Each structure stands twice: as C-alpha cells, then as structure tokens.
Amino acid sequence: MHIAISGNIGSGKTTLTGLLSKHYNWKAKYEEVDNNPYLVDFYNDMQRWSFNLQIFFLKERFKGIVEIQRSGENVVQDRTIYEDAMIFAPNLHSMGLMSSRDYENYKSLFDLMLSLVKPPDLLIYLRSSIPNLVSQIHKRGREYEAGIRIDYLSGLNTRYEEWIAGYKDGKVLVIDVDMNKFEERTEDMSSVIDLIDANLHGLF
Fold it and tell me: What is the pLDDT confidence band of residue 123, given thresholds at 50, 70 and 90?
C-alpha cells in the first residue's frame, strides 16, 4: 500500500507523514530537502538555478517511487513526483524563472518517467491558506526559506488547486489544514485516520 502526501511548502506534509507512519507502522519516505545541492542557490537566484533544482528533485522523486514499488512495503511518502511537473516547474516557467527550452526538456523527461511507474493507492492533499503557510515556514526557521516570495507561494497554491481538481489517477483525500490541526489536536488526527481508512478500504 502506498499513501502519498502532497501540499505547498509549509503545509505539514512531513509532520503528517511521520504521524501516519507511526499509526500504521508503515515505512516513512521523506523528501530529502536539505540534501539538495541546489536549494540555497535557487532561493538566492531562482532564474539561474530553477532547472538544476527541478531536475534534481525529479531524479530523486523517480528513484523514490521505483524503490517503493520494488520493495513491496507499505509506505507513506512525503511529496509526490506529480508536484514537480504539475506545480513547481510550470509555476517557475510562468513567472519567467525557467526558460521555455528548459521547461519543455524537463516536461518530456517527466512524461517518460511517469509512464514507467504506478500512481499511489491514495493521494492526500493538504490545502492551506497563504497566511498559514507563511506562519508554518517561519516557525520551522529554515534559513534558506526566509526569502520565499509571497507571489511564489500564491502561484503554487493556485496550481495545486487546479491539479487536484483534475487529478484522475486514483483516490484523493483533501484535508484543510487551516481547520484541521492534526499535529496539535488528537481528535483532528483521529478524523484524518478515519477518512484514510474509509478511502483505503473502499467504504465510499
């Protein structure tokens, strides 16, 4: 079984991945953000480093899915391969921070990779307002995230909503993290687990 958690920067993906992994006793597959050698450079000069950053993420995401499918283990995954190509890369392209040549090259590579892997059994989308994202990003205090632009986050949010509305590859569960504070309230976490169980076991 493969659950994948999607959502904007600061929406709570890593936190929920850990909580679900513990509850179900499944393996957690975390996004290795801090190991990306382009991340600091990207936030300092998005236009120069956008293609390098996205190619690295895409390679890591593809490798992660291949490992999940080969292992046969039950896995909760922090972020999906879809988000790079459906959200981050087109957002950078539309903002003029990735050239059309680089974007088309990136997209063709993504399409090839996607044809070789299976979608998750359940996709969870963590929906969040911009103020909540900014608050969470500030709270975790990563130095390289201090300069994230509001228009960048807003563009990502718009694309997330469009992507989720058109997602047809499998089951989707949307959680509003402005309202559902699963990290702080046990009753909210219980409601998330109930919804996941219902989706996975086909109750609706």
Answer: very high
pLDDT tens, residue by residue, 172-192: 999 999 999 999 999 999 999
Where do the structural domains in the chain lie, given as residue ranges? 2-200
Our answer to whether residue 78 is catalytic in this structure is yes
Given a contact cutoff of 8 angstroms between Cβ atoms, the answer to whether 179 and 201 are in contact is no
| pLDDT tens-place string over residues 156-167 | 999 999 999 999
Could you please state the CATH topology (level 3) that the domain comprising 2-200 is classified under: Rossmann fold (3.40.50)
**Tokens coding 194:** 């109930």
Q: Residues 34, 41, 45, 78: which is the catalytic one?
A: 78
Task: Put the strands of the sheet holding 171-176 in their side by side order.
Answer: 27-29, 75-78, 2-7, 122-127, 171-176
Contact 40, 158 (CB under 8 A): no
Question: Shortest CA distance to 59 belongs to which of 38, 41, 45?
Answer: 38
Give the pTM.
0.87
